[in-house]
Amino acid sequence: MYVVQVENVFKDYLLGDQIVQALSNITLQIQRGVFLAISGPSGSGKTTLLNLIGCIDMPTEGRIFIEGQDVTDWSSDQLADLRARTIGFIFQTFNLLPVLSAAENVEYPLLYRRDVSKAERLRRVAYFLDMVGLARYAGQRPNQLSGGQRQRVAIARALAIHPTIVLADEPTANLDRNTGTEILELMRDINHKLGTTFIFSTHDQRVVDMADRLVRIEDGSLRELGIRRGSGWGTVRLPQLGEHGRTGVTQ
Length: 251
Fold this sequence. Notes:
By secondary structure, this protein is an alpha/beta fold. 31% of the residues lie in helices and 29% in strands. It has a single domain, classed as 3-Layer(aba) Sandwich (Rossmann fold). Helix 4 crosses helix 5 (147-160) and helix 5 (147-160) runs parallel beside helix 6 (177-194).
């Protein structure tokens, strides 16, 4: 079973009095446990695709499946519960709550989980802060941490819900080169240790170089698909599709 399936998806936005098509007929299947990069120029639609996979937004046409379940017509409450249990998010700007400590930020998404006891919340907070190397900074607030440390807190927060999927939107964009590389290596290590599926929206060539699967998007359409083979890529270049075309890929 695929962890994510995107079937014949279109996404339109209303900009003023004009309709802008952000995605055009995307079909994509993503296998569990991959480290996948969605790349493309600014405005290509990669963040839109990430938001659809994360059930933050819904397609104009087409279907979205998460762990085999068609979630396209789910209510906002159902989708919120799905995100709380299945999908972790890592953002470019960290999105930490400034009044909370590192530990409290990691714990925060678990407060809405009635199936997770206080003792279990505290165990997970300690475990994942230790995993990202920040156990001794648990009591520090975001403004007392470096950019790299804040992103590590964000990673621990994403993992604390025990997600099947972690979605990362330009996670290295606000970090210096060395710190960004350390963060990517940390996420790759977590991918190997826990088997968590990581899906990135990125401009960063380092993410592409570290990924084992690649999706390139241009002008809202799939253009290139890649599977890492040893130190290189096996890639398939896709033709531009018209409104009624269809392209599928298993990642």
